[in-house]
Amino acid sequence: MPDHAPAAARRGLSVDSTGAIVSRLLRELGLERGMVGWRAVETWPEIVGSRIARRTRAVGFHDGVLQVEVEGSAWAYELEFLKRDFLRELQSRLGSSVRELRFITTRGGIQR
């Protein structure tokens, strides 16, 4: 292995094996669930698209439930029909730790 290669590569570690080590460490430290929640919040706009992201904001994750603020009851009502699709996409990306979506209606718009 060339001297200029990253140290991990010289030791035979790949990005995949390093990722597995990090995942195992997070799980052993009890931080994996928090990472899933953080990733769910961060991934929300990408999952729902820009039109819905402008009217919503993922605000928290607790006990497998992603909490999403929604601008007004009309939007919340519409999103209930799409909830299953959003949940399926979240689970495909983040695993079964995401069990439910909860929409919270706000007044006066979404604060960014």
From TrEMBL:
Name of the protein in question: DUF721 domain-containing protein
Natural source organism: Eiseniibacteriota bacterium
Domain of life per record: Bacteria
Pfam families with a match to the protein in the record: DciA
